[in-house]
Amino acid sequence: MRKKTDIRKKPSASTKINKVSFLGRANATISQHFQQFVNSFFELWKTPFATLMTILVLGVALSLPTIFHVTYKNVERISGQWDSASEISLFLKKDIPQERVQVLINKLGLYKEIETVTYISSHQALQEFKELSGFSKALDHLDKNPLPSVLVVVPTKSAMNTVGTKFLVAKLEREQDIDLVRVDLDWIEKLQAIFYLIVDVVVGIATLLLLSVLLIVSNTIRLNILNQRDEIEVMKLVGATNSFIQLPYIYIGAWYGFLGGVIAWLFSLILIFWLESGVDNLTGLYQTKFEIISLSFNGALVLFATSALLGVIASLISVKQYLVKIEPS
């Protein structure tokens, strides 16, 4: 019997060489980038004073948008607390029979926008007023209780906002046995309108500050390129390409941006630590507790990445504009 012949082709020596060559080039490229990345960091500190001043300026420019962001997050939390505290007080008409009060409570319980309904009789309201006002003796001389009965309505979570509460108030005002609907939303709306205006202003200022970061890093890289003009000419004479020469400057720009982001993060932490005691004193006067939140871990990562990206973009602007113009004479 004939033996079956294996006709599968074995990988040729050239294929193996190509694979080894590709892996070698990839490892060499990664090693080169890593070496340039590390060397660019130490290159910064050859002029420590100038580098430190540049990083501090970048830190100040980046800290203001960071602080604005932290302030926005804290004010947003306060706004959320306002919405969740939007109880509605329903002052009932005088001398309304108890049976009609119960019918009204049952009717309000069917509203999909209402979570709970609490009844406070006129007698209970008067007793609470005596305790809180300190005029109990003077109020004892009244011939008739002037306070009406009250229903305290707590909206559902879906209605705990300005629009939902307004819609619910409009429905409650159509009930015949309700004399007055009271909810303190006007001042919240005005405060929110002011807040949104401030946010627009802050976004504009933050945009200008981020633009200033681009200009600062771009100008710093430009000065570095001009100071090392002779070295760049020599490198081009021995055959170095523009992409090879520009790599350290791009990493230097990334380092400038990243270190500026770190300084901005530290400035925001210092400011929050400084404001904590004042906020505690203020909230203590109103018998409430509010803790200032700082920049979250994810927020810090976004700050570092964004600032480094700004540094890279600024470096590319300077490199493309000035490096390509340098040619050996």
Mean pLDDT: 78
Number of structural domains:
2
Radius of gyration: 35 Å
The tally of beta strands, per DSSP, is 4
Strand order of the largest sheet: 2-3-1-4
Strand content: 5-15%
Gap between N and C termini? 79 Å
Q: Which class best fits the helix and strand makeup? A: alpha+beta
- What's the number of helices? 10
Shape: elongated
Biggest pleated sheet = 4 strands, antiparallel
Succession of helices and strands: HHEHEHHEHEHHHH
Percent helix range: 55-70%
Domain FtsX extracellular: 87-163
Subcellular location: Cell inner membrane
Transmembrane segments: 49-72, 193-217, 249-275, 295-319
Membrane topology: Multi-pass membrane protein
Short account of what is shown:
With 329 residues, the chain is of the alpha+beta class. It contains ten helices and four strands, in the order H-H-E-H-E-H-H-E-H-E-H-H-H-H.
Keywords for this structure?
single chain; 329 residues; 2 domains; four-stranded antiparallel sheet; Cell division protein FtsX; cell membrane; FtsX_ECD; cell division; ABC3_permease_C
